[in-house]
Amino acid sequence: MSAPIEPMVDLTMARQTALDIAREWDVTLGPPFEFANVSYVAPAGLDAVLKVSWEGDDESLHEADALELWNGDGAVRLLQRSGRAILEERAVPGNDVSALDDAEATGIAVAIADRLWRPARSPFRSVLPAMSGWLDEAERRGAAVAPLARELFQSISREGEWLVHGDLHHHNILRAERGYIAIDPKPYIADREYDVASFLWNPFGNDMANREQTERRIEAFVDAGLDEYRIRAWAVIRGAYLRPDPQYVEPLRALVV
After folding, report:
1. Across the chain, what does the average pLDDT equal?
2. Could you tell me the pTM of the whole model?
3. Fold classified for 97-254
4. Quick check: 19 and 48 in contact, CB under 8 A?
């Protein structure tokens, strides 16, 4: 998931925008997808999806820009855009990688990430200013690993050069007719290692108690050319605000001790 764990939000405005855009683009919307909590997402016919992000979702500000840059290479293909509304390819059959063997799911994630990561600049933003704010909030809320996360952030933070997905995990990698593709990016400019954290604590229900599994996943990304220490550090940093629950404290700390 992405920053901080997402509350239920009022999608009234996003829904109205979706309905208005659907009429303008002459597409017929089906019922919205059940698990879209911070955007209004609905099928638009058989082959497309219309998505309108909640107006308060700053992380997805440049989602359409990222999809446009990727042009279907590793990600869902952008079909049309207008402000925060995007019409995108629908992944069919659309099942995610959470039901696959862990080694297979990890291999797919590594391959997808390697296609998405690329040097980029404007209009994408560095994640560093946002990260400082997210860590401030984690400290205000008393997150147990926040002090360690702050220390690690100060030691590894540097201006990144890579466009990253930002929310790369099992439920955002779907099977389509043309292969597995990523959806729902929250793009920033950052280290590539920034992207690994959310994969480590997914799929839903994974509390990182299986240390061997976590280590195997890290090893797979290291084998793809990433820096092991930075993977571990970013997982603690992002975990401070994304996984503040007590069961994650020791698994996160164990990554760097």
Report:
1. 95
2. 0.94
3. Aminoglycoside 3'-phosphotransferase; Chain: A, domain 2 (3.90.1200)
4. no
The H or E element that residue 107 is part of is helix 102-116
pLDDT tens string 19-52:
999 999 999 999 999 877 889 999 999 999 999 9
Contacts of residues 165-168 at CB distance under 8 Å and 24 or more positions apart, as own/partner, are 165/66, 165/75, 165/113, 165/116, 165/195, 166/2, 166/59, 166/127, 166/190, 166/194, 166/195, 167/1, 167/2, 167/198, 168/109, 168/112, 168/113, 168/116, 168/195, 168/196, 168/198, 168/199
CATH superfamily of 12-89: Phosphorylase Kinase; domain 1 (3.30.200.20)
pLDDT of the residue at 8: 65
- Per DSSP, what are the bridge partners of residue 70? none
* Token pair in block for residue 224: 């793809």
- Count H helices and E strands in the chain, helices first: 9, 9
Residue with tokens 């092991």: 228
pLDDT greater than 90 at residue 74: yes
